[in-house]
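Hey, sorry to bother you again with one of my protein questions. I've been puzzling over a protein and I'd love to understand its fold better. Take your time with it, there's no hurry, and the full record follows here:
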Amino acid sequence: VCSSDLQNYFSLKASTPKALLSKVIYKFCCQVDPEATYIGKTKRHLDKRVKEHQQTNSSIRDHLLICSPCSNEFNVKHFTILHKSKDIGTLSILEALFIKEYNPSLNRQLSSHGTCVDLSVF
């Protein structure tokens, strides 16, 4: 058996744990209300960004204050990776596209504060 044939059946590279993934678009989902979602991006490790959501002023933190099931067991497992990218610039574009597609309820603070972001493609 040729070694190239074995490559088709086995991966020699270990997969990175979700908590240590970086340069990702992520989605938070409430444990109780499937409509309570948030989409964001991070270039740092996901677990670091999750902790920031819990400790700083954010719409996820506001949600945790009113949702006991989420606040009692808040961790990276309640986040889904929507996309990984090697290019940091692509993350902002993808984040905007995912927010447009999913219309997450916890991202609505952007429109309520009049925030506007110009997206330059060329």
About this structure: Strands lie at 24-29, 37-42, 79-84. The first strand starts at residue 24 and ends at 29.
